[in-house]
Amino acid sequence: MLEVKDLRKSFGAAKRALDGVSFSVRPGEIFGFVGANGAGKTTTMRIIMGVLEADAGEVTWQGTPIDFTTRRRFGYMPEERGLYQKMRVAEQIEYFGRLHGLSPSQARKAAADLIEQLGLTARANDAVQTLSLGNQQRVQLAVALVHDPEVLILDEPFSGLDPLAVDTLAEVLRGRALGGVAVIFSSHQLELVERLCDSVGIIARGRMVATGPVDELRAAAGRRLRVVVADAGPDWADGLPGELTVENGRQVLTTTTKEDDQKILRAAMEAGQVEYFGSEYPSLSEIFREAVA
């Protein structure tokens, strides 16, 4: 298990970047690390990888403090991409494989496999600088994966990708997790995090404000009733509990009340056409907004 324990980090007297950040990620688990810009995600990842030193706290892998030798078994994709722009795709991936200790034949095979998995076959002999942002992201991920890491740490890997590229990268991450790799990635795409991750950590202003399996966080937030009504007047829900909003021209009432839901249904049917009526758990986006408020 990768364990991050009570990390603290300040940049000068005025800025505290991390204030007791703790979480854990098991082998085979995909962990989504979410928070606003400047919340502390990148600082945490850099400390795990040894790019920054924490003021206090500890990071361990399988119960042992992480050192340089341990980190060689990790794969890292930083937010600032670090590719050699004039190198060709295949030779670039092979080069990083050699840096991680692979033999020439091992690096060549690993590069070829990743190029196929990530849909880069047609661009294998092209210089990186000629690739689109999405394809450069794929190359960067291949570089992080080439040595078959035990832990994979990715800072905003889906940033700027089109839906097809997102699906390709997501499938690769699922495959690695199924093979026992502990995967951590940060993202602002909360719908993707909810769909892909086993557990999440929400960080705000350097503190973890929520962490745990996605289903447990949603269940803990509580079930609510959601009613969508078309052609209803803005005052149809007066006197009813809950929050009334407008989505795509429809009146939407959301409530966690224990009041008779049939009373709410009757009011909605009298007001207009009921397009949706049902109870549901909040989405990760809603939990995130509530947690960081």
From TrEMBL:
Keywords assigned by UniProt, alphabetized: Antibiotic resistance, ATP-binding, Nucleotide-binding, Transport
Record-level GO BP terms: response to antibiotic
Residue ranges occupied by any ABC transporter domain in the UniProt entry: 2-230
Transmembrane segments: none
Cellular localization per UniProt: Cell membrane
Membrane topology qualifier: Peripheral membrane protein
Domain of life: Bacteria
SMART domains named among the record's database cross-references: AAA
GO cellular component term, pick one: plasma membrane
GO MF, any single term: ATP binding
Stored SUPFAM superfamilies: P-loop containing nucleoside triphosphate hydrolases
Major localization listed first in the record, in broad terms: membrane
InterPro entries in alphabetical order: AAA+_ATPase, ABC_transporter-like_ATP-bd, ABC_transporter-like_CS, ABC_transporter_ATP-binding, DrrA1/2-like_C, P-loop_NTPase
Family: Belongs to the ABC transporter superfamily.
Protein name: ABC transporter related protein
